[in-house]
Amino acid sequence: MKKILAVLLAGMMAVTAFSGCGGGSTESSGSESGGGEGGNTSVEVKDDLVDESVFGDEDNITLKVWAPDKAVALVKQQVEDFKAAYPGKTFTKIEVVAQGEGDAGTQILNDASVAADVFSFASDQLNKLVDAKVIADVAFADYVTEKNAEETVTAGTIKNTLYAYPETNDNGYYLVYDKTVVSDEQAKTLEGVLEGCKAAGRKFIFDCGNGFYSCTFAFTGGVKIDGFEEDGVTQKFTEYKEDEAVATLQAFSKLMHDYKGVFTSLDVAQISSGFSTKTCGAGVDGSWNTKSDQDALGDNFGAAKLPTIKVNGEDKQLISMFGYKYIGVNAASKFPAASQILALYLSGEKCQKQRAEQLGWGPSNKAVQEDPVVKESPVLQAIQQQSQNACVQVNIAATLWSPMGNLGNKLIADQTNPDDAEFFKKLLQQTIENVRDEG
User: Fold this and answer.
1) Does the structure show a pLDDT above 60 at 302?
2) Which of 53, 213, 221, 232 is in the most buried spot, having the most CB atoms within 10 Å?
């Protein structure tokens, strides 16, 4: 390894000392410019590790890590491997605690001083974390940029600063089905999926009340989000054809009512349990539940991109939400150097491959993306295909989710008449107005 200046992080009392960027090396081992008031110093990263000197004077290190519930056991082992890689440092405690990625940003904002030092979060939370100054920028940006897919780096960057370590390239959903209920051919269309489930007396589960999923109804109709308006707060929408959007909402609602008792709005957690009890035939789920679904279905596990829906005689591809997951460093961490080094390791190639193998997560790391564990995964291939038919989950207003969830609930409600175009026109207009309302 190149000579590393031991003083790079020594004595640094704030995470902001990590900021800055420079040319760095383009060698495969990686070189990173970590700046501070003292100027740029070069730190080599090799195999997602740095020299122990980069810890500076930090010792007797105590850290808290937030990880999704299903990943806690694996992250605990990864933390042990991390500690073993730095035998010269004393880690008093590195605690791994379950915390959902969808709520991590909110919890950090509640009180950053008692939150995790290192945490996983979904891409739509980045803006508010940066605005609140509770997330530190990435200390090893050149290396991270080189190793990860461009789109994940871009989505983690605000005003030319990378604020988060890419963790996954799979934060989306796909069609999962029991092959004894729904054939591969039927899986291509929503009508086919519902017919297969009806014939078998099984449910098709779609969480209509969750805006993350139910935005699909509006997106499929041509209503797309496009970041923020100039105020940086209000959700911006692209132009769309209202008649087409209304007709699409009607088509969804008609299927929900025609297949009442089959088309069921339940939390996605009910999909794998439904497979186990043979009450569910198919559902819309995400990679975070892959292992549970596979365990429940065994050889009958089927996965595909979302199907089409027929609108005015035309098959329209379902359009979903798609994003990325990241590992962030708390700007209030009492061990800023150790937090950055741990985040680097947990987001690295080895850990991403372990998560792909054991949890079915889709990697952002370019090398792992080419690994057979990804190339041969029907789930990850389905998610990647669906990502080509999706809105990217960045620059999302907090006001998006509830109105979209309400939209889904109204579509499936018993009292809704799918033939009432005027109702759906008003519902669509109200939904968009509520999303754009800054509250």
Assistant:
1) yes
2) 221
The tally of CA atoms less than 13 A away on the side-chain side of residue 18 is: 29
Return d(Cα 318, Cα 320) in angstroms, integer: 6
CATH number of 15-170+324-375: 3.40.190.10
Place of tokens 């990217």: 392
Reported as type and span, the H/E element at residue 171 is strand 165-171
Same fold, 15-170+324-375 and 172-322+385-436: yes
DSSP E strands in 288-344: the ranges are: 301-304, 308-311, 314-317, 320-329
Tens-digit pLDDT profile for residues 83-109: 999 999 999 999 999 987 777 777 888
Q: Say whether pLDDT at 234 is over 60.
A: yes
DSSP string, 10-21: TT--SGGGG---
Q: Which DSSP category does 125 fall into?
A: G
Distance, in Å, from the CA atom of 147 to the CA atom of 350, rounded to the nearest integer, reads 12
d(C-alpha 288, C-alpha 225), whole Å:
25
* Beta pairing, strands 118-122 & 320-329: antiparallel
Question: CA 94, 97, 100, 103 torsion: positive or negative?
Answer: negative
List, in order, residues 6 or more apart from 277 with CB less than 8 Å away.
Answer: none
pLDDT tens readout for residues 351-389: 999 999 999 899 999 999 999 999 999 999 999 999 999
Q: DSSP characters for 352-421? A: HHHHHHHH-PPB-BHHHHTSHHHHT-HHHHHHHHHHTTEEESSS--TTSHHHHHHHHHHHH-TT--TT-H
Name the pTM for this structure: 0.81
Query: Residue ranges of the alpha helices (H) in 6-93?
Result: 72-84
How are beta strands 91-98 and 61-67 bridged, if at all?
Answer: parallel
For 135, 268, 334, 399, the CA distances from 127, given in Å and listed in that order, are: 10, 27, 23, 14
Residue closest to 337 by CA, chosen among 82, 44, 46, 15: 15
Rounded Cα gap, residues 238 and 222, in angstroms: 9
What string of H, E and C letters represents the secondary structure of 208-231? CCCHHHHHHHHHHCCCCEEEECCC
Query: Are 389 and 224 within 8 A, CB to CB?
Result: no
Burial class (CB in 10 A: 0-12, 13-18, 19+), 366: middle
- The answer on pLDDT for 42 being more than 80 is no
In the chain, where the domains are located: 15-170+324-375, 172-322+385-436
